[in-house]
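Please produce the structure of this protein holding S-adenosylmethionine.
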Amino acid sequence: MAMAMASVEKSALLKLGFFPGLAARSPSPATTSKRRWRSGSFFRQQQMHVQAKVGAGLDLRQWVQQQGGFVWDGVGVVQSSREGVGLVAAKPLAAGTTIIALPHHLPLSFPPLQQPHSLSTSDALLLGLAQKVPVRLGLKLLAERAKEGSFWWPYIRMLPQTFSIPIFFSGQQINELHYPPVVQQVKKRCRFLLQFSTEVNKATENVLGENHPFQEQQVDASSLGWAMAAVSSRAFRTYNLMGTDNAMMLPLIDLCNHSFQPTARILQDLTLAKTEKFIEVVTEEKLEVGTPISLNYGALSNDVLLMDYGFIVAQNLHDRVELKFDGLLLDAARFAAGLYQSNSVSFSSPAPWQLPILAKLNLVGSNASLQVMLGGPDHVDGRLLAALRVLYAEDPADLQNIDLITLQTWKVATPLGLDIERKVLKTLSALSAVVLNYFPTTIQDDKDVLVKEDSSSTKHLITLFCHEKKRLLVNVMAGLKSRVSSLGKIDNVPQMG
Ligand SMILES: C[S@@+](CC[C@H](N)C(=O)[O-])C[C@H]1O[C@@H](n2cnc3c(N)ncnc32)[C@H](O)[C@@H]1O
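Below is the modeled complex.
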């Protein structure tokens, strides 16, 4: 997702997201600590009612201005139960206008520490620990949150106390997602947090006073999870002139909620990297009074939105259903499609002449990448489509003059003939049905829950997530069905040239 932007003057920034590939078990609640977290006051402030939260947002706006930042005087702060705090236009504004600009010293980042010998004990410890985590900014955030009189306190006090991301779900709620790619990833992240909290405490156990990066406060999986969630849901990637990226938390700017049709975008002026206002939010369109000031967090699937941000988008065009390419699963789909015969060779044991093509598709071999997707404009992953076409081929000669690109697209209606194409489409459709049946509840069950549950509840979020996956699978089946029907209209199988 990172964009190479070193050569452009103003670069659009993307949200950061969680470190891919980490993971977990539900973190234990905050336990005993040598000293109490500053969270006493932090948590009290987090229980502020709506009006106070909005007021704190306005205080943050003022702090940014006092620190030399620019905030358009029409920036309003609102709160809703669904999106939390957000920014809105309190006045009309033309497109292409700067709304917020931050000076260089306001973003919270983990600065590149190039001279380890000159570091304080506390910074050296933090650096050592940070080298073990992909998102080291979380540690910096925790260190600042622990520090009395932190420069960033006006910002940190505005951060949510809790996040609705799945690492904070109960074990049962995680399992209720019924979607193995996300369930596994969440469990992996939780495991990481538990392990890493042990490491952090071991590395700091005999450190006292100012030398302690977290002011002698014990860091448990829950506080680490809080920090990682704050970073995954709020940090942006910024770039320097060398194109090196760095994660930063951008006070006030990170109160903008997400939309795939955003009203603003965030720009980084690389040529001004050393001057005052180097990150700014600019309107994409004319704003009317009450228009939310939203940013596009990126072309993110619901899996990423759920795991990193704690919300999902209905009818998200970037969403997919992820599967592991597996001969047995394809056999089950072939069986469900009524295409399995007693003399059928299992898809788990491809013929030797089929293997080289499957290897070229990177679906067999020790370094194979077995993750394939359903959904999207073509309904299925090109590699899955190609693999099924190959697996249904009966004669090596069928595959001789076919290139890999053709096999992976719908460009040629029947690259291996009408019969094979029909089988492929029916198998893919049955595969979608098999995956759909994996969910223990129906689309109607979900609808019933969705109307009953509070839209800000975890139950609602989990149900909506499952509901959207099921809807996607039904759409895939409808798309494949219409392809089968259009095949019926083909009298002559086009010859490959
Ligand atoms: C960068 S913060 C935006 C400010 C945040 N609303 C707050 O209260 O501080 C991102 C978080 O806002 C919420 N959010 C942003 N866009 C959303 C959307 N379109 N729908 C639901 N929640 C959204 C999610 O909780 C997400 O993790």
